[in-house]
Design goal:
Layout (H helix, E strand, L loop, with lengths): L2 H22 L8 E9 L2 E9 H5 L8 H14 L2 H4 E2 L6 E9 L27 E10 L7 E4 L1 H4 L5 E8 L2 E8 L4 E3 L1
Parallel strand pairs: 1-7
Antiparallel strand pairs: 1-2, 2-5, 3-6, 4-5, 6-9, 7-8
Amino acid sequence: MRPILLSSVIVLALALPVAAPAQHAHGAHQHGVAELTVVLEGRMLQLELISPLDNLVGFEHAPANETQRGALADAERLLLDSEAVFALPSEAGCVIREVGIESPWRDSGREHGRGQTRDHNRPARGDHEDMVASYGFECAHPEALRRLELRVFKHFPRLQRVRAEFATPRGQGGGVLTSGAAALAL
C-alpha cells in the first residue's frame, strides 16, 4: 500500500470512530429517522448509517419469535449489500472494501459478505436499540463523487428521513434525505 493511501486509511480509521459517537449523540433517538455520516479522504470513502431498529424491522427489543429473528436477519443481510443501500457515480470507480454491522442481537463473530462483522457486546438500552452499518470504499476517481444516492427507503418503509453529514475535500455539509429526494450532493 502506498504511504499516502496508508495515511488516508489511518486517518479514516481514527476519524470515523470519533465522528460516529458524536453523531450518534447528535440527536435523540427518533423513530422514522436515521443518521448518515459520509467521509471522503483521498481515495477512501467511508459511510456509516445509524438507525433505530424500529425503522428497519418494526421492533427494538430482542427478537421474541422466529418471525422477528427472520426480520432482523433479513435487515442485516440487506444492509451488508452496499449496492442495495447506496448508488455511487460509476465514473468514480468505487469498489467496496469493507462492510460491517453492529446489531444488539447479532451472532458474535460471524463473517458475512465482504468485510467483517462486528459485535461490540454493548449494553442494551431497553426499547431504543439501533443498528449501525458501515461501508468502506476505495475510489479510483474520487473527484467524480459529486452525488450519493440512498436506496434504503424502498427496502425499509418505516424509514422516513435520513439526516446526513459529510466531509469531503470540497467541504463539509449535510442535509435531510427522504424517499422523494434520496440523493445527497457532495
